[in-house]
Fold each of these.
Amino acid sequence: MTAITEAESRTAATAAVLADEFLAAIQRGDLDTAFRSVSPAAEVVIHPAGQAGGAEIARDFFREALAAFPDLMLTVTRRTACSDGRVLIELTFEGTQAADFLGAINQEKHLDVEQAWLLATRDGVITAITGFWDQNKLYRRLAVKRLDRIAIA
Amino acid sequence: MTQTLKKAPAEIVSEFFAAYRKHDVAGMADLCADNADFHYLPVEIWGKQWVIRGDGKVNGIGRVLWSGLITAFPDLSNEVTSLSSAPDGTVVAEVMLSGRQAGPWGAIGNRGQQFTLPHLFVLHVNSEELIDSITAHWDNASFYRQLGHAEVD
């Protein structure tokens, strides 16, 4: 029989709290607090943005998102805390564009796109952040017509 | 709720992706509950007055999409790069799908291009050791670019 051990359940619960606090701080626009729990050596991959590197990559992404969508709402649709310390946050990223974003010029369009953020945690610290979403859907919402001419309306 | 099963949910999910590698759509569906939910979030096909989304059941749109993808990409394969399990039977899987186009895929004509695309799957295994929900995230912009398709559609 397979069963989750108490230690694994505790790991999952601790990771969930860390992820919730990270996201809540981002939602408030408080990146200093959010990234205080991210290891400087964290491995970050944001697949749709084609970005990979350290913690600063994720911080820059959220800084740009908050600037481009001043009314940004991150609505969590599911949060899954795993026994190995990883946490998946699925959310809707929603707001009205007020500045260029990921190459798409500002046409004041409303954006709503589902995202998945996979956070790895260890010893109370976020050690990896991986982002998934459909950039084609994001471009469609922002009225981009062609993938080879993102900045042309 | 914590589950106690004969077979670990991650093992069942591994069998699911093994069946996918063998292009065994019936085998994939056999690992799922009859009414298993299916959510391929990037699937969104727009007409003039309608939109078709990748939401439904495994035994409906799920089988149709899996079979269609295998037909369009006859060498379709996958590599599971990480699996994490939650106490409630949810399994988070990072999976790299790849293949070379040999037929049309939706509105994308065959240009014989190869793709390699990271996916995030979220599957839930129920107390009967069957997958009762599948959600997938990926980036269609990257997929379309690799296939030589530049239109945001």
Amino acid sequence: MTSDTIHIEQSGNKVIVARDLTKRFGTFTAVDRISFEVERGEIFGFLGANGAGKTTAMRMLCGLSRPTSGSGYVAGHDINTETEAVKRSIGYMSQKFALYEDLKVCENLRLYGGIYGVPEKEMNNRIDALLENLGFQQEKETFVRQLPLGWKQKLSFATAIFHEPAIVFLDEPTGGVDPVTRRQFWEMICQAADRGITIFVTTHYMDEAEYCNRVSIMVDGRIEALDSPANLKQRYNTSTMDGVFQQLARKAERG
Amino acid sequence: MNRLINNKGKRARNRRVFGAFVRKEFKHILRDRWTTIILLLMPVVMLLLFGNAINTEVKNAKVVIYDPSNDDATRTIINKLLVNDYFILYKTVSSPQEIEPLFQEGEVGMAIVFSERFYENLLHTGEAQVQFMADGSDPNTALTLTSYATAIVTSAQQELLKISEVPLQITADVKLLYNPTMKAVYNFVPGVMGMILLLICTMMTCISIAREKEKGTMEVLLVSPVKPLFLLLSKAVPYFVLSLADLTIILLIAVFGMGVPIAGSFFWLIILSFIYIFLSLALGLLISSLVRSQIAALLISGMAMMIPVIILSGMLFPVENMPWFLRWLGQVVPAKWYIEAVRKLMIKGLDFSSIILEISVLTTMAIGVIMVALKTFKNRLE
């Protein structure tokens, strides 16, 4: 069974596979037997109210937290037994801005590149290429704390995919960012997806859900709906993702 | 074979990552210029403060004497007291009632009250009373004065007893061991060492880890393939270096600026300090795995670590005079053992055999704390 799954998701381009993934804290079931698959290059939206179990599910997929039961594969690695390989093949961007403010832009990139094993020979070229892509060439030697928030956010994302991971997990990446920057930010996400990096993103903004190829909506630890935004809107007979979300979230008993 | 090469590559990569982290930590510290300056200047300031401003040395304290007996014994004792330059006679009073007003005027530091027929009682019953009264509102000075006086009386008493048995004149000489002039600085140097090292290693390490948690960078690092142990160790390295710098500063100032001798083994002093530094670093790592915010780290390491060190380690207040439970509590304060051992090595000039107990206690503590810290750290990861 196990070897089958690996075989299927490698040949079938499935970079994330979750099967009956469950996490209990004492008697509280934070994540209740969720199953889904994410394809290579897909932008996968992970939606849910606060306390629905999004973060817990994501932490299990990142190898930070061990599932109580169920199995999962990320980039072909078992999240139960191969957490180090899992960690090596993913990128991660947290809700909080998490670059070092007292390090320069290039120092931050060099540090994260080093952590993920970017070869020393390629390091400088890749840093230059990344900064050029962002239009940040002038800021290479700037301290991160001197950058405006929107730039920091973009730099943060660029750092998360600096080592060209198979998958990048974004945990509410656009909190507190203005609409223009948010739009630019999503353009960056789409570009990365076009390059074949799978995007797994949690968000509170329903308009952002529209950018996703597919969206899953979690309610009380379970996945209540999983489809493309267009199909979801059709099924719930509403014109916005917000409408879909309201109908589903109303059922929530906790949160 | 393949595996061997793999392992080699892995180790090389680990070394590279560790190096990158250590460099990053040094940058954090050196770019926070004020903190660095404060950390390097603090030992200087502390030594100056403790060495000069806070002075427990007692000289020329005024004493008032009530001596209803006025016999050989009391005169011998009074002479011995006044021959030192610790005490000078302020007044001889004719009734005990006159004493208290003098204290209230703030003129005298100590009163000596002899019982009636002092020598007679001493010869016949082997007992005679003398009372020392001191101003308890300044407990440090009071304590010093009375312990001086007690020491002098004890020696005088022995002298008197010997006279009564063998007719031989023996001049007893009060000598305070190890710190004959009671120079405050002698006692403070080990104390300052214990405090500064603890401050840098424990407090700074755990604040720096808590800062990563607070800013969210820790989360990103935990998601990355870096071994958590690497993170912790790389935090400890720069503070280790910094504490060595401070240790050097303190020793240089103490030896060349203040004339404190390193009477005992310099080699063991350094070994001892290393053990203490490791213990302090381990404590910092332990605290940091328990707290989430910088302010909590500061409070716990500041309040729970520094205050016991200042109060219970015998650095400012003599531990001997504390209630038993505080003395008992003092036994678990690492700095107490360190300071004691440094005193033995630096000031008393004793050798390694005298600090075996302290070294074993500190080593045991260090191993214990490191083990608990690693365990809590692993448990807290989830």
